[in-house]
Design brief:
This is Catalytic LigB subunit of aromatic ring-opening dioxygenase. It comes from Nocardiopsis endophytica. The protein has 228 residues and is an alpha/beta fold. Helices cover 34% and strands 22% of the residues. It has one domain: Protocatechuate 4,5-dioxygenase, Chain B (3-Layer(aba) Sandwich). Helix 4 packs across helix 8. The chain is globular.
């Protein structure tokens, strides 16, 4: 059963060694990520699993690592050679900073259907009496005016709806996020959020939104969910 979850973004710039002179820009976001991951580590869960989007759906063991070299700075994280996608690599880095040791890393295909994501979430939640999930997911990368992708006026409203769902722990709202719209708006977190939605299995969950910002034209969320 899912007993605790945290949602964090996964920009490479979250790692100060990569951000270099711009590291201070994400200090608050980094602090909030540390807070929710630290709470997961202290939750007493039997199992901690990191979930994030990638090329295809697959699982990795606890001895898996990644590297931020493709993003400008050779920075190995965890055991090498690197196998984890960016989302899980940043997830591992966040866990290491807080002394957390995930039992597994789960990559979810960026084009996975909502039904597949929901089923995967339910499967993960059933693997132990108390399961904690660290869910890595960015919002739209088309936020006006300075986004990495071509700005889209629909992006702010999309991210507001996701932020509201995370704040309310509204699993149904996350489950309804349209994959086609998420793809058009370059919202990479959609499949991971829907895994989280499936993991609640309809149970009562309390949500708290700690951060919702877009410092580089990409929506970043930090949230915490706990079982009532």
């Amino acid at each position: 059963m899912l007993t605790a979850a945290a949602v964090c973004p996964f920009p490479p710039l979250l790692v100060p060694d990569v951000a270099a002179g711009a590291a201070a820009d994400l200090d608050d976001l980094r602090r909030e990520c540390g807070a929710v991951v630290g709470a997961l580590n202290a939750s007493g869960a039997d199992r901690l699993v990191v979930v994030g989007p990638g090329e295809r759906t697959r699982r990795y063991g606890p001895d898996s690592g990644g590297d931020l070299a493709p993003y400008g700075v050779p920075f190995p994280i965890g055991p090498q050679p690197p196998v984890l996608p960016l989302s899980l690599t940043i997830g591992r880095w966040l866990c290491e900073r807080e002394g957390a040791a995930p039992d597994a890393y789960v990559e979810v295909a960026s084009d996975a259907a909502p039904e597949e994501c929901l089923a995967l979430g339910a499967e993960l939640a059933a693997e132990a009496p108390a399961v904690a999930l660290l869910v890595m997911g960015d919002g739209s990368a088309r936020r006006p005016p300075s986004s990495p992708g071509r700005p889209d006026d629909r992006a702010p409203a999309f991210d507001e709806e996701v932020a509201s769902a995370l704040a309310r722990a509204d699993a149904d709202a996350l489950a309804r996020v349209d994959p086609a719209l998420a793809r058009e708006l370059m919202a990479a977190g959609r499949p991971a959020w829907q895994v989280l939605a499936g993991a609640t299995d309809g149970g009562a969950v309390k949500g708290e939104l700690l951060a919702h910002e877009a410092p580089y034209g990409v929506g970043y969320f930090v949230a915490r969910w706990t079982r009532d």
